[in-house]
Write a structure and sequence with these properties.
- About 40% of the residues lie in helices and about 10% in strands.
- With about 140 residues, the protein is an alpha+beta fold.
- It has a four-stranded antiparallel sheet.
- A hairpin with a 2-residue loop joins strand 1 and strand 2.
- The chain is elongated, with a radius of gyration of 20 Å.
- One of its GO terms (cellular component) is sarcomere.
- It comes from Armadillidium nasatum.
């Protein structure tokens, strides 16, 4: 790559600085290894959010229409066997409107009795995440408007 200062093809005379108004500002170069790693990471995060929501549905109390709720302590016990990113995945799921809970974040022990609710049916969540084939780095999924 000509824009990589660590490659043998780097030319110091090239202007490499992007304006903050440029649509590519803060994004990896299209087709680069960085972009591929970002796309792979986004797909992995989507899968973790889907799995967490599925655990809430399978192990929680069903409330109809494919929705459910579970206490944080129960979810923590179940999900930590799968991943150590329970709280981060919960925050990601809430950010994108899949689930909700009281408070800014949840802590083991202090928030054991806080319920975590699915806001959409598990079928809607899985459909939204599986239909999102074009991942954008830094975005969990494309919001359906």
């Amino acid at each position: 790559m000509k824009s990589n200062p660590f490659s043998g093809n780097y030319k110091t005379s090239q202007p490499t600085k992007l304006s903050r108004n440029d649509p590519n500002y803060g994004k990896p170069v299209a087709g680069s290894k960085s972009e591929k790693r970002g796309l792979k990471a986004a797909a992995h995060i989507n899968a973790e959010v889907a799995l967490l929501c599925d655990m809430i549905y399978q192990e929680g109390e069903k409330v109809g229409n494919g929705k459910a709720w579970i206490l944080f302590k129960d979810l923590f016990q179940i999900y930590t066997r799968i991943s150590n990113k329970v709280v981060g995945t919960l925050l990601r799921g809430r950010k994108h409107g899949f689930l909700d809970f009281e408070g800014e974040t949840l802590f083991q022990g202090r928030d054991d009795n806080v319920p975590v609710f699915l806001l959409k049916s598990i079928h809607e969540i899985k459909s939204e995440l599986s239909s999102d084939q074009e991942f954008e780095v830094g975005i969990c999924h494309k919001a359906k408007e």
